[in-house]
Design goal:
- The protein is mostly helical.
- It has one domain: Glycerol uptake facilitator protein (Up-down Bundle).
- About 65% of the residues lie in helices and about 0% in strands.
- It is built from 8 helices and no strands.
- Helix 2 (about 55-75) runs antiparallel to helix 6, helix 3 (about 85-95) packs antiparallel against helix 4 and helix 3 (about 85-95) packs parallel to helix 8 (about 220-240).
- Residues about 240-250 have low confidence and may be disordered.
């Protein structure tokens, strides 16, 4: 069972060179992703003079996030695993694939990366507002909470199937594409309702820079619950029970 694999980690783990390099990679990858994602929203607001969101704007946001995440995961995969998301890190922890201390280090790097990205965007655009995540009219808090759970479940399940699963084989080479695709698809599905964050760091940066905290807890609780459930289910049903140990020469 994965609960037996959960580990706090050694006290010196957070200061080891490999852990610090991994944290730096998470910082850079998250910065890249948020600049592309939030930047696309700011560009849309400038072009439409803060007009209402349109179907074409939703498609543009989905593409920007999908492409940005594809790159962010790709450039960080060989160093940190390319989590770029506290919910992914939490799902990996629940499945026993990362220690608590390293996970906290990743979280700090991801949150800082998002905040710095939003500060850069605000400066580079001449002081334009960085749009924070919020619920659309007619969407209740519980509706958004469930939507974020379901969408993040799909994201973290995809991460497990294509990147974490030790038997993914050649499928691992397309992991960044699959992860980018599921995020883009989920934005098309949920963007008009909750904003389709699926990522506490992505919501945190804009909230800090714009100082907008209305219903912000939804963008933490929903993704963390969805990511944790995905990690638990995949680890219990598809890794621990269906995989045979690989020969040593295959590692």
């Amino acid at each position: 069972m994965p609960i037996r694999n959960i580990a706090v980690g050694r006290p010196d783990e957070a200061t080891r060179p490999d852990a610090l390099k991994a944290a730096l990679a998470e910082f850079i990858s998250t910065l890249i992703f948020v600049v592309a994602g939030s930047g696309s929203g700011m560009a849309f607001n400038k072009l439409t003079e803060n007009g209402a969101t349109t179907p074409s704007g939703l498609v543009a946001a989905a593409l920007a996030h999908a492409f940005g995440l594809f790159v962010a995961v790709s450039v960080g995969a060989n160093i940190s695993g390319g989590h770029v998301n506290p919910a992914v890190t939490f799902g990996a922890f629940i499945g026993g694939n990362i220690t608590l201390l390293r996970g906290i280090l990743y979280w700090i790097a991801q949150l800082l990366g998002s905040v710095v990205a939003c500060l850069i965007l605000k400066f580079a655009t001449g002081g334009l507002a960085v749009p924070a995540f919020g619920l659309s009219a007619g969407v209740g808090v519980l509706n958004a909470f469930v939507f974020e759970i379901v969408m993040t479940f799909g994201l973290v399940y995809t991460v497990y199937a294509t990147a974490i699963d030790p038997k993914n084989g050649s499928l691992g080479t397309i992991a960044p594409i699959a992860i980018g695709f599921i995020v883009g698809a989920n934005i098309l599905a949920g963007g008009a309702f909750s904003g389709a964050s699926m990522n506490p760091a992505v919501a945190f940066g804009p909230a800090v820079v714009s100082w907008t905290w209305t219903n912000h807890w939804v963008y933490w609780a929903g993704p963390l619950v969805g990511g944790g459930i995905a990690g638990l289910i995949y680890e219990v049903f598809f890794i621990n029970t269906t995989h045979e140990q690989l020969p040593t020469t295959d590692y």
